[in-house]
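[09:14] KT: can someone run the structure on this one? pasting the chain below
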Amino acid sequence: MRSRVGVFIGNLLFAALCCCTGPIFLAIGYSAWDEDPGWGWPAAVAAAGAAMTLMIPVSAIISTRKEFPGITRRDRLKGGGFPYRDDTFVLLAPRARQGSAQARLMRADVLEASRVRYNPDGESTFTTHVGNYTPNEFTPLIGLRLRVHDTEETGAGTGGTGDFEVTGEWRVPAVCLSAITAGRLVVLVEPGAPGTRRAVTPDWPRSTLLSGTRTARLIDLEGRAAELTRRSDRQLQQMRISRDAGGVVMTGDTIDLRQLDPYTAARYAALADRYRACPEEQAPVSEPGEEARRLADQLPGEKGEFGWVGRRWSRRGGVLVRARFLEMRGRTTFQDHGPVLDTVLRIQPADGTSPFDAARRLTVPMNYLTVLHRTKEVVLAVSPNGRSYVVDWARTNLLAGVTEAGVIAPDGRELPVAGRPELIWALMNLLASQGLSVTKPVLDLRERRLSRVADMVTGVMREHTDPRTCA
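[09:31] RB: done, structure tokens below
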């Protein structure tokens, strides 16, 4: 975990180096003005030097604010907070190509996925591509093997004789990577003669809806709300209606039929009546075979760990809290390890008071974005005075399962931890409260410095025993 003071000092030194002529001009102008008072060239040189000198701390503060993912009181949303529920997640992704009018939206299952190429310049600085949300430099090229379900051709469900496989390489916007891990995509299939290979293009924004990364609900003409998240068949049919209508705007994560034109609203309502009579079960969070399409280990981002603990922070009462993303909005600025996004988070204070919402521009690691269909939680380190919250991506990625956590008992036994976020969270808090840093994903209780907490770790694990293991 980086120190805000350390980052500021580094930026201050860099700014001083870049603007070193400012103090020199200020000194020259001041010296000349003493000898020749007035508003001639000495005053102009001194004024220019003063302006450049002033830019040193201002530039350092601005750079630190951009680089350091801290959340303070100034980031809190005004006017009662974000108007969405706790389980809502809005993802605004770059627009997809619409294809020809004859192309049809279909579902495709991801059978295999692997990174083909992602090679930005290798710098940690911020790069902005004006007007371009998906520059090739910062958009990974992913190789995919897909099974496309041509239900319109067969009139049957998935697995019909019209299904076909396709292999290709596509640029995937970073915010849409989780749709691949979930294993469900929406693709545009161009028409073709029987037996010929048809052009297939993934629709990444719609894929985040079908995969369940982005939540969805519908309000019908009578004002009744229906949850649509991971109702993949119904969502796909709604997407076809929306495409025929030239697009339907979602307010947050909601489509309100009362705001649509009568013809489109009637088509949506007829579909809703059909599924009300025969409800659709939710699809799984992730389709079977996730290991064959897991990209978290192939893309940049911080490796998960139990976390570094600063002694001063721990002694003065610093704590960890969890927050949840409510919104992510793409921008045209990037770093090598992930895109810069406008985000909204709902933060639960450690003292148990009501949660509050905050808006913050963050660089979100790509490896975290690959599991966004499964979790939207992040870990925050709270300053001892409770005024500042810092996103801890290393702890976040361990809690999210980007990196697999492990615990080794004093006798060498490996204890089950992976896939149990509540247990991992309890262990993180225990280590933080004891002032112990474990900057790796495995908590090895055989280490001498960790032996004093071995009994406490065992007690925490006993409290969080997975009932599925109890027979």
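[09:33] KT: thanks! The CA atoms of residues 217 and 227 lie 5 Å apart.
[09:34] RB: yep, looked fine to me
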